[in-house]
Amino acid sequence: MVQVAGVDIGGTNIQVALVDGDHTVSSSTKVATPTGGPDAVVEAVVELIHGLDERPAGVGVGMPGPIDDGVVSHPPNLVGWEEPVDVGGLLGEALDMPVAMGNDVNVAVLGEWTAGAGVGARHLLGVWMGTGVGGGLVLDGRPYTGAFGGAGEFGHMIVRAGGAQCGCGRRGCLEAYAGRANMERFALRAAAKGFETSLLDIRDDKGKDRMTSSVWSTALDDGDPLAERVFGEAVDAVAIGIASAINLLDLDRIVLGGGLAEKLGDDLVDRVEDAIAPHVFLPGDRRIVVAELGDDAGMVGAAALGRARMLLG
């Protein structure tokens, strides 16, 4: 069976695996993401692929940032990427094989649609809740990336005009309320003003330097009032975004992924469903589900992208 390499480039790690035609992952490996800029990242990917158990027939890559025809522009959380870089072209030349590129969340959503919680959906929205908030779309049974490769930026839908400051520089973005980094900033400001919370103690007890998904999950399980308040605002923002997407696109499935979804599971689904209900215009038998593939979603989706490139040319 033909093997394709699935590559997931993140701000912390690069993961690579062989994926067969049944979407089974094998020979998985990873390294810390280099901080030396594009050339160092490309070199690391090439070395990882050369170190796989067998030579793949093609490569699919998911990484942060807008991607258009293999060119990556200003990927967040990667150091030294000052100008757009043709990563697809560089990898194709170095590896002498077909290479397909996609945005990391779009690719993870493709993985879930191909082999996870999205199987069978024709009109799907994936929402990934982590440090930021990302998204991806499948419309009429086909992955949808838009006119310039930027579709699915769910975290930058405006849910409150003139609202909280987002890391992108605009105000009122969904990510300003539901991205874990912004949730942490709000919690720290509230704690500094004397708002009672166990979030900081839980963070320290777990040996974390940030309020990770497990920290939020524990605080919510304990009924921490600040965690409930901040997370409630996050759920409200996500619900407004999802309801707006449903009203615009008439979706049949929503897949929730990322660290927070993995930790909170069905509890998050229940909260989101309740918050969505008042905002949806058209009723329908829609399913909201938690992603199933975990860290493999990006590699499975990337490999599917690479396999399509091989078939279509």
Question: What's the helix and strand layout?
Answer:
Blueprint: E1 4-9, E2 13-19, E3 25-32, H1 38-50, E4 59-63, E5 67-68, E6 71-72, E7 85-86, H2 87-95, E8 99-103, H3 104-115, E9 124-129, E10 133-139, E11 142-144, H4 175-178, H5 180-192, H6 199-205, H7 213-221, H8 225-249, E12 253-257, H9 259-264, H10 266-276, E13 287-290, H11 296-312
Parallel strand pairs: 1-4, 4-8, 9-12, 12-13
Antiparallel strand pairs: 1-2, 2-3, 5-6, 6-7, 9-10, 10-11
Helix pairs in contact: 1-2, 3-11, 5-8, 8-10
Structure characteristics:
313 residues; alpha/beta; five-stranded mixed β-sheet; 13 strands; 40% helix
- Pick out the low-confidence regions: none
- Seen as an oligomer or otherwise, the chain set is single chain
SSE arrangement, N to C: EEEHEEEEHEHEEEHHHHHEHHEH
**What structural category arises from helix and sheet content?**
alpha/beta
Q: What share of residues are in beta strands?
A: 15-25%
Mean pLDDT level: 94
Put simply, the count of helices is 11
**Overall form:** globular
Number of strands: 13
Q: What is the helix fraction of residues, given as a range? A: 40-55%
Largest sheet: 5 strands, mixed
* Spatial sequence of strands, sheet with the most strands: 3-2-1-4-8
Could you tell me how far the N terminus lies from the C terminus, measured between alpha carbons in angstroms?
19 Å
Radius of gyration: 19 Å
